[in-house]
Amino acid sequence: MAAVARRTVLAILRGKSGFHGKPRPFSSCCVLGQKFNMPPSGNDLPRPGGIASMMRLPVQTDTQGLDACFVGIPLDIGTSNRSGTRFGPRQIRTESVMLRPYNNWTGAAPFDSLQVADIGDVFINMYDLKDAVKKIREAYTKIVANGCKPLTLGGDHTLTYPILQAIKDKHGPVGLVHVDAHADTHDQMGDEKVAHGTPFYRAVDEGLLDCKRVIQIGLRGTGYTDYDYDWSRNQGFRVVQAEEVWYKSLAPLMEEVRAQMGDGPVYLSFDIDSLDPAYAPGTGTPEIGGLTSHQGLEIIRGCRGLNLVGCDLVEVSPPYDPSGNTALTAANLLFEMLCVLPGVQYRRG
Q: How many CB atoms are located within 10 Å of the residue 10 CB?
């Protein structure tokens, strides 16, 4: 009886997950004869069930055949305050079971037009940050080699630095839409050149960014000086502090961003602490007076039409939000990023 039960469970997992054998009908979508992976409906697979991949999509070990991928980096050894972001990718995937494949406001239908899968987590050295950064760069060099666009689940913000290194090797210097409470432009933290407060200083130093096409949105909080953001402005970045957009829609700002970015390649980096702690308490360096969740949506939706070559969502620290709502918000924002990638079909709008 035990052997029969085991075979039954394996058969169910193979059918439901799409990892083994022939995919079930609800796990793919056929468009002009091409099949795309499709997240399973809650009516076909109960939301608490299935393998905990992003949106319960099929998992594969590389980007072969993919237009975009979800990939995790369980990193928190670059943090300066509260750690725990190593658990971010797993919790975001868990909360993503609530996501459905169509965007009911924008009309985006990413799974009707792009082949997407979860490729798991980057293997990193949990005890040596410099080596972890090296491994991330090596992994992303392979991820983007065939044109696949990575959507990264973080992980502390240190990870954006090696990703930009790999992106630059593929696409050249990129524009950047950076959404954050902090500028992350320190030359060093303590005696270290690599940490979650230094990625964009390192990126400028190494020529990874097209500095006239960089915007930082949501910066706020107390500072070490009264000119903390001048370094960014002196590089040519546009800086939009959170107070500038209190009580405002960000749709007009994003029109200006699209003009600033033009047709060149663009990377989107979204730190969850850009949102006010009322919306996202589960993070390591929270700052009051932040963006609202709907302003976060406006920023990402406003990136539609940009030549996005990759995105990340970083600094989710599940231990500081036992409700799971910070990770739920992050999962939704990652879906919105998928919806604005080049090549996504829109059913309306």
A: 12
